[in-house]
Specification:
Blueprint (H helix, E strand, L loop, with lengths): L3 E4 L2 E4 L4 E7 L7 E8 L6 E6 L6 E3 L7 E6 L4 E6 L8 E9 L11 E2 L3 E6 L1
Parallel strand pairs: 2-11
Antiparallel strand pairs: 1-3, 3-8, 4-5, 4-9, 5-6, 7-8, 9-10, 9-11
Length: about 120
């Protein structure tokens, strides 16, 4: 069992930056692939980024490539999402998720989810 708690959301102007954190409980964190997803009212949940359990490979949605960076610190049981050059369309609730096995972009394949943290980008 893994419990996930996100933090770091907030309100910023377009062009600004935020760093999200996702703290995980449980000693098996380092064996899980981790992903970030975002949810906007009226839209389907959207894949943002994911990282392998070892942190050796990362994957991004085309809409965030070159602007967002996912990383993890297994010693701290934490995964991060550095978001730069933010745009109004990045607004949403950002959730982290964990799954055993390989990285996938389908949210349905993730076993554990956090409650999410709100990110609001104004123009």
């Amino acid at each position: 069992q893994v419990q996930l708690v996100e933090s770091g959301g907030g309100s910023v102007q377009a062009g600004g930056s935020l760093r999200l954190s996702c703290a995980a409980s449980g000693s098996t964190f380092k064996s899980y692939a981790m992903g970030w997803f975002r949810q906007t009212p009226g839209k389907e949940r959207e894949f943002v980024a994911a990282i392998t359990w070892r942190g050796s490979s990362s994957y991004y949605a085309d809409s965030v490539k070159g602007r967002f960076t996912i990383s993890r610190d297994n010693a701290k049981n934490t995964v991060y999402l550095q978001m730069n050059s933010l745009k109004p369309e990045d607004t949403g609730v950002y959730c982290c998720a964990a799954r055993s096995g390989t990285v996938v972009v389908r949210g349905e394949a993730y076993d554990y989810w956090g409650q999410g943290t709100q990110v609001t980008v104004s123009s």
